[in-house]
Design goal:
The structure is a homodimer of 433-residue chains.
Chain A: E1 5-10, H1 14-22, E2 28-34, E3 38-40, H2 45-49, E4 59-61, H3 62-65, E5 72-83, E6 88-93, E7 98-102, E8 105-108, E9 112-114, H4 120-125, H5 132-150, H6 155-161, E10 163-167, H7 171-191, E11 199-203, H8 215-228, E12 231-233, E13 238-241, E14 245-248, E15 253-255, E16 258-261, E17 265-267, E18 284-285, E19 291-292, E20 295-300, E21 305-306, H9 320-338, E22 352-358, E23 361-366, E24 370-373, H10 375-388, H11 392-408, H12 419-430
Parallel strand pairs in A: 1-2, 1-8, 2-5, 8-20, 10-11, 10-16, 11-12, 18-21
Antiparallel strand pairs in A: 3-4, 5-6, 6-7, 9-17, 13-14, 14-15, 19-20, 22-23, 23-24
Helix pairs in contact in A: 1-9, 5-6
């Protein structure tokens, strides 16, 4: 056995992976745990859901990333419990066995999950869009519904099949609504030899889209969405979702079988395993060193961590740069603890934020100072996402896909994979082996 | 309603699609039925199963193919029954409703299914490789097993996890075995920081591989496989497959959790719906005009049809050129019936056959006269498959993938999609809508 200190990282998202890469070939033994065998490039999930990209284009095998890091091991599994006294993490591994893994330093970077605000009707009947499985479910569902609509004679039933509701006026909601509209009305509709005009409705509970953005960008985003044909409803609070309709607080009913819920996030419930008092949204309170308050050898970063931005008194937003910059500090501070040096404090370098809406449509707020919208914001969005995407092959494939779809108004990833068949056939073989 | 005759095509495989395209914009109304919304490029399925290609690279949306054919409608659904007296086809559609569709001319091109020769242990525990769902199941299974092997201490258990058995010495068996070997020992093994050498065993019941090929190509194929590391066993008849081992007729036991069965095909059981006496392998007997014997307005072609090749007295093999050439004759003869003209007879133009084995390894038998093996056969295989693949974007994506993997010895499509999650979340929403 090595005499190195052992670090356990929970989560191979942007925060966890950044730390792992910074600890590569350092004098620590790292165990990286994730429930999937891949890292997900979440900003492009909506393109998988809307038939634009293949799942593998936004997923990258964790083991490929750490192939040249002999001090990092990867374990595919789900964390069952954390014992901060005994310094043990209990993992349900892919082999169905539970393993207790010991750590000197623990780092919780398990990200966020969808917040349905305790409304069970939404949990049951709306689609989340947080991971690859979610995206594939949506893709299968909407393509299947379009096939159904093609053979549905009743006009009102057909309209319900062709009405898609997206809840949440943040970047994900905008991107999903815009992309769904283009998929239905620019791509699918051309191939069905009858009139199948789809409605896409974006619901936002507040009185404007893109809340943290400046006014002019909020208005620009709404104008661009409406310009392409998306119906935007602000001050629209969803009270109930069934498999047949959405009911708003005003009593208004929208007949639909497709509701994508991107109206809220909360911390991954794994945060509760630390047995400390959590902050708003179930987040783990951390020091500016990214150490969990009260637990010196435990770190947290990214969406699951709660740390106030001194500029506005709010917790840092759930953005990739925040997760990555925090992850880098975690790696530094773990090595500082190992080497008995002084810890560094996290300081956020804010490069701004952006959201895309559709063909040549986007808004961007560079460095939170320079507003951009329309074509140039869109080009900036494309370029940035290509650069940040992991793996050169993925970049090439995504780039070709985008260029292709832009020129030909097409989406080729429109295959319906039968979940039932996948399930039943795998049951016999997965547990026993 | 149009006064055109109505043609129903069952199956959007190579035979059905060829006919549909030939009937495009002709004076007939065509209804094309398939259980999937995509056409599958079956020769590359094994590359999906072995993490080389994305599902969408070998699947092409049927509606895209017929987008410019207003006389062709597409219905996603499963055929329940055929009534040749009333000229009705009953279809369980994607919307869960059953529809009766009337035809003037029926064309059965439903292809083949895996032949397990009545051995239930094989049905239950071996993987078929006939469609995209099969391929994804295999991919999920083998990557999951490798993750498990990485954390299995017991040497014999670990070896069983890393032993892969492919049954069947035809082109699919060879291609799958070679590709599995490369995936495990060139790609995955590099990324696991311990010794995880995999065994790949190819079993063939006869005394040589690639039975219809000439001797020297059979020997070359076996030599190339063994040269890369695959263990080839001929005269190996499988008697039992469990989730823990394969038992041969000799009593020999191979401990494995992964058996890919490509040892036999039979006609799609849909053939039985015609209520006629079927030929060997459950195939539909047809005239040289591709009309079903005894049913003048019903055609069959491709893997589901039985027609003797006058050259060797055997039914034409289940190859894409056979299906496509037969499909073309079906289209011609349907129009000849419509226009009261004389029917044409099918004559096969045989361009030969080929099988790839791995990096720079293949055998080809051009025009059934010129034997090729090794690098040049491999290049011929790559080129031909790119040309035949549907859709320019797919061709580009597949080509880049191949070049990339060739240079970097990599396979990036290694994501495990959790079938269980896909299943449970979709249940609530799919049937009600």
């Amino acid at each position: 056995m090595s005499e190195n200190k052992r670090v356990i990282i929970i989560g191979a998202g942007f925060a966890g992976l950044k730390t792992a890469r910074e600890l590569s070939n350092k004098n620590v033994d790292v165990l990286l745990i994730d429930r999937n065998n891949y890292h997900t490039f979440t900003p492009l999930l909506y393109q998988v859901a809307t038939c634009g990209l293949d799942p593998s284009a936004v997923a990258y095998p964790v083991r490929s990333i750490i192939a040249d890091s002999p001090n990092i091991q990867f374990m595919m599994g789900t964390v069952q419990s954390i014992d901060t006294d005994k310094q043990l993490v209990s993992v349900q591994t892919v082999s169905n066995g539970v393993r207790d893994e010991a750590y000197d330093y623990l780092y919780v970077a398990a990200g966020s999950s969808t917040n349905y605000f305790g409304n069970q009707s939404i949990v049951d009947n709306a689609f989340g869009l947080r991971d690859l499985d979610d995206a594939l479910l949506i893709r299968n569902h909407i393509v299947r519904l379009f096939e159904k609509a093609a053979w549905t004679e009743d006009a009102s039933k057909r309209q319900a099949l062709l009405t898609l509701v997206v809840v949440g006026g943040g970047p994900t909601g905008l991107e999903t609504a815009g992309s769904l509209y283009e998929l239905y009305n620019d791509v699918l509709q051309k191939e069905f030899h009858r009139d199948l005009k789809a409605r896409v409705i974006l619901l936002e509970a507040a009185d404007s889209l893109l809340l943290p953005y400046p006014d002019n960008l909020q208005r620009s985003a709404q104008k661009q969405l409406e310009g392409m044909g998306v119906e935007v409803m602000t001050n629209a609070f969803v009270e109930e979702v069934t498999n047949k309709y959405v009911r708003l607080k005003t009593g208004e009913i929208i007949n639909t079988h497709t509701v994508v819920w991107s109206a809220g996030v909360k911390a991954n419930p794994l945060a509760e395993m630390l047995d400390i008092k959590l902050e708003r949204g179930g987040k783990i309170p951390v020091e500016t060193t990214m150490q969990v308050i009260g637990l010196n050898n435990v770190f947290a970063a990214g969406d699951i961590a709660y740390l106030k931005n001194p500029k506005d008194g709010k917790s840092y937003p759930g953005l990739i740069p925040v997760a990555q910059q925090q992850g880098a500090i975690v790696a530094k501070n773990i090595m500082n603890l190992v080497n008995d040096k002084e810890l560094k404090e996290f300081r956020y370098f804010d490069r701004g934020s952006m959201a895309t809406i559709g063909r040549s449509r986007a808004v961007a707020w560079a460095f939170n100072r320079i507003p951009l919208s329309g074509f140039f914001a869109w080009i900036a969005w494309l370029g940035l996402h290509l650069v940040v995407l992991l793996g050169m092959r993925n970049r090439i494939v995504v780039f070709i896909g985008w260029v292709w779809d832009y020129i030909f108004y097409n989406r080729t990833v429109r295959i319906i994979l039968e979940e039932e068949k996948l399930k039943s056939k795998s049951e016999a073989l997965r547990d026993v082996a």
